[in-house]
């Protein structure tokens, strides 16, 4: 026997409960700020999955982009945070290079 059951899946309107005191007062967690939510999503990005081949493919795609502008207009991004991931990956590489340069400069000064 199968029954049709309507299930409503909605985001909770209330914040999550952080603590319930001994007198029954509920203390709620505040909502995340934009920077905190961006940091939360950025932590989910696995930078090791991308390689230099992806960067070369992107550069090749930019060269041939003028030919396929009409085709690209209909294709959406595979992942909505793709541009954020790429910018964060580039920033990570720049920070690593800066750290290496500073480490070399510090060794040479001593």
Automatic annotation (TrEMBL):
A GO CC annotation recorded here is: core mediator complex
Which InterPro entries does this one have? Mediator_Med17
Biological process (GO) annotations held by this record are: regulation of transcription by RNA polymerase II
Positions of transmembrane segments: none
Keyword annotations: Nucleus, Transcription, Transcription regulation
Subcellular localization, as worded in the UniProt entry:
Nucleus
The region called Disordered is annotated at 53-75
Offer an example of a GO molecular function term for this protein. transcription coregulator activity
What's the domain of life for this entry?
Answer: Eukaryota
Q: Where is the composition biased (Basic and acidic residues)?
A: 54-72
PANTHER family from the xrefs? MEDIATOR OF RNA POLYMERASE II TRANSCRIPTION SUBUNIT 17 (PTHR13114)
Q: Which family does it belong to?
A: Belongs to the Mediator complex subunit 17 family.
Q: Can you name this protein? A: Uncharacterized protein
């Amino acid at each position: 026997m199968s029954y049709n059951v309507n299930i409503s899946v909605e985001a909770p309107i209330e914040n999550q409960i952080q603590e319930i005191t001994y007198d029954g007062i509920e203390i709620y967690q505040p909502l995340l700020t934009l920077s905190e939510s961006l940091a939360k999503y950025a932590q989910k990005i696995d930078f090791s999955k991308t390689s230099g081949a992806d960067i070369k493919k992107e550069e090749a795609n930019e060269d041939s982009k003028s030919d396929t502008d009409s085709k690209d207009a209909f294709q959406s991004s595979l992942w909505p945070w793709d541009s954020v991931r790429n910018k964060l990956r580039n920033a990570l590489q720049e920070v690593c290079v800066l750290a290496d340069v500073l480490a070399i400069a510090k060794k040479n000064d001593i």
